[in-house]
Amino acid sequence: MSQRDSVVAIALYEASFMPVCWREYPETILDYFHASTNRQFDKAAAIKVSWCSYFVHWVLIQARVPAQVKKGMAGDFGGADSVSRFMKHYGGRPHWGK
After folding, report:
1. Mean pLDDT value of segment 49-72
2. Where residue 15 falls among pLDDT bands split at 50, 70, 90?
3. Residue 88: which H helix or E strand, with range?
């Protein structure tokens, strides 16, 4: 199975068989935050932030995709949002991917 197929399979499994929402699976979402930031979160702190990019990062980790993303909080990357973790900076200009 290719890495792409693994990423899709893991994301689909997680979304299909464990419908993730704060009400029913707070620990699962907190796991996404921890995988992306190396920090422990409680629900009160994490619920203030959209968890979608943390989920994507978690899926990439589960699929063993070589790291192209940085761990940390949105402000750690010089960007205004969590998506900044998926960007590499060259001469101050952000670029997606490699």
Report:
1. 78
2. confident
3. strand 87-90
CA distance 8 to 42: 28
Three-state secondary-structure class, residue 85 = helix
pTM across the whole model: 0.69
Question: Token pair of 4, please?
Answer: 């792409």
Helix axes 52-62, 3-17, angle to 10 degrees: 130
Contact 29, 20 (CB under 8 A): yes
Instruction: Give the residue, 32 or 78, on which the prediction is more confident.
Output: 32
Residues in the chain: 98
Residue 76 has pLDDT above 70, yes or no: no
Which amino acid, one-letter code, is at 57?
Answer: H
